[in-house]
Amino acid sequence: MRTKPGKAIFALCFILILCLGTSCISLGLAQEEKEKEDIRPERGISVAFEYPEVIINRGDDVSVDLIVKNKGKRDENVYLRITSAFPEWDTKIKTYNFSISSVHVPDGEDKHVTFYAEPEKDIKPGTYEFKVDARTEDGQLKVSHQLTITVQEKEKEKGEIELTTSYPVLRGPSDARFEFSLDVANKTDKEDTFNVTAKGPKDWQINFKPPYEDKYISSLRLKDDESRSLNVEVTPDRLSKAGEYLIPVLISAGESRAEAQLKVIITGTYKLEVGTATELLSLETEKGKPGNISMYVKNSGSAIIHDIEFLSIKPENWKVEFRPEKIEALEPGSLKQVEVSIVPAQEALVGDYAVGLNIGGEKSSDDLELRVTVKASAAWSWIGIGIIVLVIVGLFGLFVSFGRR
Amino acid sequence: MTGIGAIFRKELADHFSSYRFVILFALIAMVSLITTYMVGIGLSEELSGIAKPKFVFLMLFTSTGPLFSLVQFVAFFGPLIGLILGFDSINRERSTGTLSKLASQPIYRDSIINGKFLSGVVTIAIMLISILLVVSGLGLTLIGVVPGVEEVWRIFIYLIISIFYISFWLGISILFSILFRGIATSALATLAIWIFFSFFVSMGATVVANAMVPLDQATTEDPEMVMRHVRLQRAVSLLSPMQLYNDSTAIIIDPMRKTTGSLVLMGAVERLLSERFRRPLALSQSIYVVLPHLITLIAVTFICFGLSYYVFMRQEIRPI
Lengths: 405, 320
What we know:
heterodimer; A: mainly beta; Immunoglobulin-like; 5-stranded mixed β-sheet; 2 helices; B: 14 helices; 75% helix
């Protein structure tokens, strides 16, 4: 069978045209894309501080992010150099853990590095300008950016830590324990650990305690804007004399610090000591007869003790007398002798009794327990022996008068 | 005093060879041994846990076993020894007619009574010493505790008191044997005296106290009244030598006892303070506490003997 040649040619032409058409369109599109890419320059970098102007307090250091951008069409190694710096500043460019002098930036990307500047402690307040130059490896591209740091005078203690106490002065004897309560407020804007230290007189013990807890601390952690109370327990040296003692308490964390002055007024201790001259705490006596013992009362504290009175715990119907009956005042370190006379009751049994003496003065007292041995009266024994002798003599009288019969 | 030695030796030989003495001694020794044995067994069980008890050895004599303690036994039946040894000492000689023969020998008349009394005392002493020694030896093996010096002293003093006490009864019985011619009469009289002092005086004391200071519902509450009652009762019962002996031996043998009284008025504080130091009394203190008792006992013994001596010396001795 024959085919029509005309028809076949037409179909071929149509396909050709179709193919051409599509290729033309696709070519055109490619042309368009090429033109878009070409907007970027062949090479281009930029460097910029994240915060070009920084205000700090004196003593603080500065770290600001430095953004390095590659705007070109090829990767670049960018060299960074701080060109203008001050001798009182220690400056460097670094990443997380090391200093750097160049950074590799792939095309179209940007890198963040840190500009770090640490001033000397006594830097003057003012404006300091730092300039960072960046250039490509071949030195064809150079850019720079400037950072202005304004150092201002530190606001004193304000906005840092506060240390307050409601009762800064306590008084008492030297054998007492003083507890101050301090309030620590963290007004800094960061959480921190604060060390607390105190300096007292020699041989004094000063401990810090959390309230209601029985442990000693030397530092405490406070969140920002948190405040907490803190007990300071002061145990003075027992031998310290009466007077005023200052205890500065310091709380510090890094640069921020606060101080509070605590004061302890020692009034002297009250301590009575009672004993007998021979150290013997026993005495012997008879029923109804006084037994005497002399005891001493000693003021071993550091303050005068007034109104020392004597009490006794004794069996019923017994008599215990003191001479003198009362001591008006006893100087520290001095000693007084007191005669004690103990009279057992007539009906007391033979044997040992305990008699307690209580010597109580103003704010101090001491006890003494005596063993009183009540002995049987030996007076009757002679009468008894007399009776026996009389009876025997009578017997012998009988022997003599009636014997030899 | 010529002849007293001969009388003394003869009487002693008579005592030791008589069946009466042997039976009596066997009885008393047996009862004391049984008593001590029971007490000893009880004590060693009781004390097994205690670290170091004080005066354990004396407990052997004082603690009451199932029946009574050795001290109580001697107090009650000890007088019987004295009575039995003496109730016929003179009137038997008289009724058998040996007294006039004895008096016709070249010995003084007082040697007879002295020798009889002395031999009785020595017999009593030997009896008591042997009983105490046997009991102590038994105690040593039973408890295994060696007595201390003070304990030995206390036992010694107890022995002396007991000898005097039993000698008192011996004196009574000798007195009755002089007073009454009949042996049965004097035996009955001594028994009556013993019963009177042992039972009736203590009963009579209660009766007297009840009559003088009656204790009824109201007065029992009052400690003063109770004390008066008890004091009166004690005073009356002290008429009995047995009470004297009981009180004194109780104090001597038990160092923890501080008074002879059975009831003591004590305040609350006094009680507390006296119990603070629980210390036994020193031996001298124990003696002082019962010194009046001891003196009375000894004096009564001497007086009793003196009385029988006087009566015997004044009596006529006729051959029958």
